[in-house]
Amino acid sequence: MGPGPITVDPRVLHAMSAQLVGQYDPFMTATMNEVMALYRGVFRTENEQTLLVDGTSRAGIEAALVSLLEPGDRVLVPVFGRFGHLLVEIAERCGAAVHTIEAEWGTVFTAEQIDEAMAQTRPKVLAVVQGDTSTTMCQPLADLGEIAHRHGALLYCDATASLGGNPFETDAWGLDVVTAGLQKCLGGPSGSAPITLSPAAVDVINARKHVEAGIATDSDRPRGARIASNYFDLAMVMDYWGPRRLNHHTEATSMLYAARECARLLLVEGIDDAVARHRLHGEAMLAGVRGLGLEVFGDTAHKMTNVVAVHIPDGIDGEAARTAMLEEFGIEIGTSFGPLAGRVWRIGTMGYNARHDAVLTTLAALEQVLRAGGAGVTAGGGVGAAREVYEEARA
Amino acid sequence: MGPGPITVDPRVLHAMSAQLVGQYDPFMTATMNEVMALYRGVFRTENEQTLLVDGTSRAGIEAALVSLLEPGDRVLVPVFGRFGHLLVEIAERCGAAVHTIEAEWGTVFTAEQIDEAMAQTRPKVLAVVQGDTSTTMCQPLADLGEIAHRHGALLYCDATASLGGNPFETDAWGLDVVTAGLQKCLGGPSGSAPITLSPAAVDVINARKHVEAGIATDSDRPRGARIASNYFDLAMVMDYWGPRRLNHHTEATSMLYAARECARLLLVEGIDDAVARHRLHGEAMLAGVRGLGLEVFGDTAHKMTNVVAVHIPDGIDGEAARTAMLEEFGIEIGTSFGPLAGRVWRIGTMGYNARHDAVLTTLAALEQVLRAGGAGVTAGGGVGAAREVYEEARA
């Protein structure tokens, strides 16, 4: 019940045990095409270029940024938690001129703040995290596409922690590039990074296409500044997923199967229903931790549905309590990073763990651990408050 | 029966369906430590820094090169096939000054040729492929560590296609960095890249360590030229796998389970026995294709055990024959790249496919397809020749 990676849906685990076929087997290429179509549904986009980067979520982030940004390009990153710092870090390594605005941990930005910073910095790319698990905050994105495009920029979003459990609209919100991972609300394992690219983003990237020696043909004349990574060169990755099927990496087939099953399960449930499920169990957990007398961290009006951060009560050893949760009850909860390390616990309700029994069991166990640690706690206060949320939802 | 990815060992598929635990769960960190120990056995090394890069084989290559090479550093790449070109390509994108020597496709280099080129170019890194599946050639490595070190260079090797099916000695041959993949002789899926680093290589990489903002502490003072990739920054990846457990990516746990099972199966079989198995079935396939009247490509004295390339006979449509093999018999064989595209077929006998029944079935099917395509072929010539190899081995 941590902030991810989380318990994987057993149907996804099962999907990964399917046998492999060759990388140009018609079944394989048809499966790749099917995955592209499924993730258009997940991202809510018409983008043709919707595919997987073979690596963890930060591989997706780096592929997006290194393919978009040339050395010297300006990028604006609104930072409201650890994963904003990660975007800065990756963009800097791309040689970009990185501008930041910072919000206090536990808050998000207004559209006006971002608009103003865009006017001042005039970047090529506005790069923002939707849900930053380090603070549990969910940055509103609906206005940012219009803002970015009005200032002549592309809008990139890291939706790893939020996608599938919080409202997300690639096309309606004007997002140009979005990357994600499977190990949060999608209920899968880490190791595959879905990505979608708007036609405008594709044009920017293809203007830098350099097909690698050994497979380039005479018509593959190099263009623009070569992308600084081979593995993350999305121009070549698109040629591998596209009709040309130009060999790049060898697609990680087991992870492809996992990604397919994650998307299939989400679309069968329905994205709106999946978001409602995350909201329900997130509200039950929020009420439950408050019912245990814990103080919630951050601006709950902008909290992600799928994770809550609570202040570790005075007198409780946070790490000892986490160990007791794991060793006595088999339940993992998380700590955080940077200014919040050792100050808060983060409890997730995401993907396969956004379940009634998982919420109540976690609250029941946490009550026992808090009591054993000497905290004042109302007997049944956590489970009772969560039950009320569930009863109201049924009414 | 292509040059990889190949049919995955069912025990590896099964291992991937195990449930995940949190990334700092004691079971998880113990499993990571176990994987490090297992791959020391696979690589035949005492290197402490033996771990996985979360991506396909070329992710491992790029992690090695981008972590070792600073812009302007000289690197020497002896190129004898497509994957030598890939090393050049990746090193160029690192900003390195890349020097090459080239061998005709189907041949390898003598130690003297490489020694001479080292003396002329005096690189920081000598980067070489062991087995290049594009040509099936296996470059002898035993003398290269001494040569590289005498010239003050580190020796990097891409052993993706060969490891586990051909003799390989990291420490005895003086290799500083080796990367591989699971999808060839190790019998696993693509998507995880085992890597091992000598203490000398670790020193070079740690001299460039920059812990990322958001998790760096005051004692993490940046050093040297920052590595141009965050995802492939092996200094940080080593801190994630090491006792500090400093968060980097979220380890791809299902692929970790796959990598563990691949190594476990290889070490239970015994590396020498696994190499002997690949040699036996490779010799049977070699005899078999000759028995079918096919001409073998390249210098068979330096062929990898686990793949053979044959010239497509005059009058046979190579792609139509590959399609018939797949559609009629469910057997995939490969074509090649660059100068060999459409000129040869490549037939693998590696990992789980290095089996008696797989060899004989492939030869029986190929005989039917060649005959249907109008090639002159001796009835039973392929299977018969392979049987003789097996009978001699039993004698």
UniProtKB/TrEMBL annotation, chains A, B:
The modification N6-(pyridoxal phosphate)lysine is found at residue 184. The keyword Transferase applies. Keywords: Aminotransferase, Pyridoxal phosphate, Transferase. InterPro entries: Aminotrans_V_dom, PyrdxlP-dep_Trfase, PyrdxlP-dep_Trfase_major, PyrdxlP-dep_Trfase_small, SP_NH2Trfase/AEP_transaminase. One of its GO terms (biological process) is glycine biosynthetic process, by transamination of glyoxylate. Substrate binds at residue 346. It comes from the Bacteria. The keyword Transferase applies. GO terms for molecular function: alanine-glyoxylate transaminase activity; L-serine-pyruvate transaminase activity. Its cofactor is pyridoxal 5'-phosphate. Residues 28-335 form the Aminotransferase class V domain. Belongs to the class-V pyridoxal-phosphate-dependent aminotransferase family. This is Alanine--glyoxylate aminotransferase family protein. It comes from Nocardioides acrostichi.
